[in-house]
Design brief:
The chain is an alpha+beta fold. Helix content is about 40%, strand content about 25%. The protein has helices spanning about 1-5, 20-35, 40, 50-60, 110-125, 140-145; strands at about 10, 60-70, 70-85, 90-100, 130. The chain has six helices and five strands.
Amino acid sequence: KALAMMNIEVRTATKADRGDLVRLYRLLETEMVALRPVWALADGLAEPIDVAFAEALEDPGTTLLVAEMEGTTVGFLLARRAPLLPQAEGEHIGAIDLIFVEPEARGVGVGERLRDTIIDRLSSEGIRRFDARVLPGHRQAKNFFEAGGFKARSIILHRD
């Protein structure tokens, strides 16, 4: 595991990554829709996905990271700075909206590097609070974020 951690590079995504981002997003979408079909309609990105990524890359309030192992893109994270209520006096929260690691690259620290990189980066910009979205029943994702110090703050209930 320690050796694999050394071969993981996390960096800010660029326009050149859009093809990999779309490919990884479609894998994420397949996993999430299997858990909750409404995910693609309510929690994913707006179609067309390549345009959604292009907009995210241009938005100064959004950070898009990619993770590579030996030159191959194996994961991504999309986070944004979201304002809190007015009584927070201008404070923002770091919202991790999407994180995904290819199944073959899981268990070697890729997700942790993505999560920890965004927390470090946004913390250096003055962000003190962070949210991460996890689907109900996605125990692996819940455990992953709890291992990083997260705990439930809100639960959204849904009915079709």
